[in-house]
C-alpha cells in the first residue's frame, strides 16, 4: 500500500505516518523511485499506535511496547508500566473531577448572591 492509502484507511495524516517512521514505530519498503510501500498490516499497526498515543503514552513507551505486542508476549514489567500509566491518568481524572466539583460549588454560591445590576468591578467579560 502507498502512504496515502495507509493514511486514509487508518484515519491519520500522511505526516503522522512519516513521524511514526522517523520514530521507528513503522517501517516501509522503498521503491526504486523512493516511494514508500507498506504491507496491509500497517493499517492495524497505525491504529494500535494511535490507541497508545491516545492513552497518553509518549513515543519512547510506544516504541518499547510494540515489539511485545508484535510477538504476542508481554512482560510483567511492561504490564506494570501500563498499570502505572493508568494510575497516573486516574489521578489526573480525580484531580480534575475535584476541580469541577469546587467550581460547581462556587457557581452555586455565586447564583445565591446574584444582583440585577452588580458593581462594575464584578464584571467578568471576555
TrEMBL record:
GO MF terms, alphabetically ordered: DNA binding; DNA-binding transcription factor activity
Ranges for the HTH merR-type domain? Answer: 1-68
Q: Which domain of life is it from?
A: Bacteria
Coiled-coil stretches: 79-113
Q: Is-annotated flag, keyword DNA-binding?
A: yes
Q: Does the keyword Coiled coil apply?
A: yes
Q: Which InterPro entries match?
A: DNA-bd_dom_put_sf, MerR-type_HTH_dom, MerR_fam
Keyword annotations for this protein, in alphabetical order, are: Coiled coil, DNA-binding
The record's annotation in PANTHER family points to:
MERR FAMILY REGULATORY PROTEIN, REDOX-CYCLING DRUG-SENSING TRANSCRIPTIONAL ACTIVATOR SOXR
Any idea what this protein is called? DNA-binding transcriptional MerR regulator
Q: Source species, please?
A: Kineococcus radiotolerans
Amino acid at each position: 500500500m502507498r502512504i496515502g492509502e495507509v493514511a486514509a484507511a487508518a484515519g491519520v495524516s500522511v505526516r503522522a505516518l512519516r513521524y511514526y517512521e522517523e520514530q521507528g514505530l513503522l517501517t516501509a519498503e522503498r521503491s526504486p523511485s523512493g516511494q514508500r510501500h507498506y504491507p496491509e498490516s500497517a493499517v492495524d499497526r497505525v491504529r494500535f499506535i494511535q490507541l497508545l498515543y491516545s492513552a497518553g503514552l509518549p513515543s519512547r513507551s510506544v516504541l518499547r511496547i510494540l515489539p511485545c505486542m508484535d510477538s504476542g508476549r508481554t512482560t510483567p514489567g511492561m504490564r506494570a508500566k501500563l498499570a502505572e500509566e493508568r494510575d497516573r491518568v486516574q489521578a489526573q481524572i480525580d484531580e480534575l473531577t475535584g476541580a469541577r466539583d469546587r467550581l460547581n460549588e462556587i457557581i452555586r454560591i455565586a447564583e445565591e448572591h446574584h444582583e440585577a445590576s452588580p458593581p462594575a468591578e464584578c464584571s467578568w467579560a471576555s
